[in-house]
DNA sequence: TCGGGGACTGGGAGCGCTCCCACTGGAAGC
DNA sequence: GCTTCCAGTGGGAGCGCTCCCAGTCCCCGA
């Protein structure tokens, strides 16, 4: 501002005048629309270059009723939930896909009431062309807002208790089941599950997968030991678990962070991993490789999740009717199980 | 879209008509401007409620020449650089500060040429009210773009080779020096530094701090062992370092991730930490607490960095002239040194 | 030769909002 | 009593772009 050239931006009218054409022609030339003679097209291009013209995106947005931006809304009561590298990777994927369509990415952390109110307004004020919604928990007010939105909405993961028309999710059940079966097939019989928050669909689905895996093997599933996906909660859950079931020989943790916490507790408790207790995580974040021992874990395609959400949104904005997507997960075997 | 009410959004004109006032009065009422009688103000509020009116942000932006959005641009040749939790935390801070001023956050990952071109356009098309720029390396084309921007620009960290007028940085030199002095004061004499990329200012400044600390103690600083801030690069650098200087008894790593990598290498090499080799990291990310042993590290106020960048930008947008900021770092002593 | 397409062209009407300004009328000042 | 002032009001002109549409011109077939 203070430091920058205060000279006004040239407008399309000025470009047109400078090129000796009408505003309409200049507009068409700029947008590569037909019905512009070669000579005038070049004249416009020259004028654009000479004047350093850049179209005003706001004016264009008003005229076309398209903002050129998509919003990614991350819900959660604690803003630090977002500091999870998971979201960063979703963003990388979404950003790449949006870039191809020349859309900008708006990020909304709906952690406070204020934040949620702003999201509600965004959803109705046409401040974006569409919205990607993530991390909805039970009774999340955003779920209802989304229904009233005046723009396409894509869910990342399914909200608890409802199946939206358009979502991209990851095969949580299948992954958790594969993790459980892996341990069972290695002879573990007393396998427990440290779950993520059970007011999220991911948390529930992963527990369901664990239970399915146990039942399929004819074993008795244990009730969930609930954490909140973080390392400390995993450590705490593991401690509680050990106290209650000292003979546990396998643990499925619904996140790598919780698995890392479990590892820590097991180490201080003098249990060897995987000799005494096998541990499988979920996510395949960087921490899984760094952990000691390196974690066997369920890999989920996080960037792809973001990318596919963005693509689905793009299709929706484009008037198409894409179908919901369930992305596969796969077990990555390392040393912990 | 397909699923949503296709009923057009009510406009301000309709609100005005419904409330029996002029558009001007309705506009003033909406913006809490003076010169509106109490009666009409209430009439407008009622109409807004009944019609479910939400102002069209694009139209407002066009009229006011303010977009209501600030952009955070993260530069880097590899999009995955952004997956670093560091940026996520910067975003949390920036987002919170912007929320107070009711600005939206646009995120631009300028990793590809395409991405950089889009940023350049954003900077000139008035697509945002201001920009926060991060992670500029030597000769980053974004540095020049920023100079030509038609909007306020705040730097997060200083770019290599130039000191912009408005930036928020962290006391890298002081932190690195404190880390080094901590080890030296504990009797370590053969302290090495595993540096971050030396084409970033943070990488250089942290090495400088290490060197200062060594020189101040009358010790000979070693040349930098360069990594790229990631865990594997730290492990590799540590291996090289051990090969060249088997008698090293202290390591300052310019990031926690590299410190974690160093820890891993030391463990496999059979060196005890901190008994044989002391290790200090930088950042104080979650990994520092989880590491085994927990890392002594230089804490930098990451959320505050984001917050202060946003506040500075806000001040700039507001026509003020804030001064550049250097945020303090502090040593957090745990077990690794 | 004449009418009928196109390919071009540019005027003008928006998109939905803000804001300047001229205008009103009642309260305050002399 | 008559100015002076100002809160309150609404008309209208933008903000910078897109897009519809009427109009021009030229080429072709009949």
Sheet/helix structural class of chain A: alpha/beta
Tell me the Rg of chain A in angstroms: 26 Å
Question: Sheet with the most strands of chain A?
Answer: 6 strands, parallel
Question: What is the helix tally of chain A?
Answer: 13
The amount of beta strand of chain A, in percent, is: 15-25%
| Helix/strand order of chain A | HHHHEHEHEHEEHEHEHEHEHEHEE
Subunit arrangement of the protein: homodimer
In the predicted model, the low-confidence regions of chain A spanning at least 5 consecutive residues are 1-6
Strand order of the largest sheet of chain A: 2-1-3-4-5-11
CATH superfamily of the largest domain in chain A, by name, is Response regulator
| Average pLDDT reading of chain A | 92
> What percent of residues of chain A adopt helix (DSSP H or I)?
40-55%
CATH-derived topology of the largest domain in chain A: Rossmann fold
Total count of strands of chain A: 12
CATH level-1 class of the largest domain in chain A: Alpha Beta
Which CATH-level-2 architecture of the largest domain in chain A?
3-Layer(aba) Sandwich
Cα separation of the termini of chain A: 58 Å
Shape of chain A: elongated
Keywords (chains A, B): DNA-binding, Transcription, Transcription regulation
GO molecular function, one term (chains A, B): DNA-binding transcription factor activity
Protein name (chains A, B): Transcriptional regulator
Domain HTH lacI-type (chains A, B): 10-64
């Amino acid at each position: 501002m203070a430091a920058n050239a205060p000279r006004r931006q040239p407008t399309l009218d000025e470009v047109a005048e400078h090129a000796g054409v009408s505003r309409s022609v200049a507009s068409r030339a700029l947008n590569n629309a037909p019905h512009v003679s070669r000579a005038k097209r070049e004249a416009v291009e020259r004028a654009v270059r000479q004047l350093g013209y850049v179209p005003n995106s706001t004016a264009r947005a008003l005229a076309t009723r398209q903002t050129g931006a998509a919003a990614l809304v991350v819900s959660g009561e604690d803003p630090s939930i977002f500091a999870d590298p998971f979201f960063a990777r979703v963003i990388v994927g979404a950003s790449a896909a949006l870039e191809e369509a020349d859309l900008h990415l708006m990020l909304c952390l709906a952690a406070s009431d204020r934040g949620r109110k702003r999201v509600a307004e965004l959803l109705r004020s046409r401040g974006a062309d569409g919205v990607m919604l993530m991390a909805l928990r039970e009774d999340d007010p955003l779920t209802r807002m989304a229904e009233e939105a005046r723009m396409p909405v894509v869910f990342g993961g399914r909200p608890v208790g409802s199946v939206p028309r358009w979502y991209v999710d990851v095969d949580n059940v299948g992954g958790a089941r594969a993790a459980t079966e892996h341990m069972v097939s290695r002879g573990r019989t007393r396998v427990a599950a440290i779950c993520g928050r059970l007011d999220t669909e991911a948390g529930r689905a992963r527990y369901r997968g664990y239970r399915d895996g146990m039942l399929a093997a004819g074993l008795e599933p244990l009730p969930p030991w609930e954490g909140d996906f973080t390392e400390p909660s995993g450590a705490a859950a593991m401690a509680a678990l050990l106290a209650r079931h000292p003979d546990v020989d396998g643990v499925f943790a619904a996140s790598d962070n919780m698995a890392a916490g479990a590892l820590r507790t097991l180490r201080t408790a003098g249990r060897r991993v995987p000799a005494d207790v096998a541990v499988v995580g979920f996510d395949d974040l960087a921490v899984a490789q760094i952990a000691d021992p390196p974690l066997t874990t369920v890999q989920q395609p996080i960037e792809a999740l973001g990318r596919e959400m963005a693509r689905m949104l793009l299709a929706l904005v484009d008037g198409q009717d894409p179908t919901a997507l369930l992305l596969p997960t796969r077990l990555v075997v390392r040393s912990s199980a």
